[in-house]
Amino acid sequence: MIQQKSTPNNPLFFKSVFNFLDLASLMSKLGFSKRSGVSACEVFVVSFSAIMYGYKNLYQFFASPIHQDGRVSRDSVYRMLKKPDYNWALLLKTIVVKFILFITGEVNKPAQRCCLVVDDTCIERCKSQKSELVAKIWDHVDHRFIRGYQNLVLGWTDGFSFFPLIARLISSSVKENRYFEASLKVDGRTKAGRLRKDAVTKKPDLVLRMCRDALAAGIKAEYVLFDSWFFSQNMLAQLHTLGLRVISLVKTNLKFSLQREGKALTQRQIQQELKHRRAYKRKGILGETIAYFYGIKVKLVLVRNQANPAKLITIVSTDLALSAEDIVQTYICRWKIETNFFAQKQYFGLDSECQAHNFDTINAFMQLSNIRYAIAEFARRLEQDPRTMGELFRDTREILHALPFVDAINRLMEAVNKNLREQLLAANVIIPGKEDKVMEIIDNTLSSWLNGTIRYIRDKINTLQLSLT
Question: Is beta strand 115-124 parallel, antiparallel or unpaired with respect to 144-157?
Answer without folding.
Answer: antiparallel
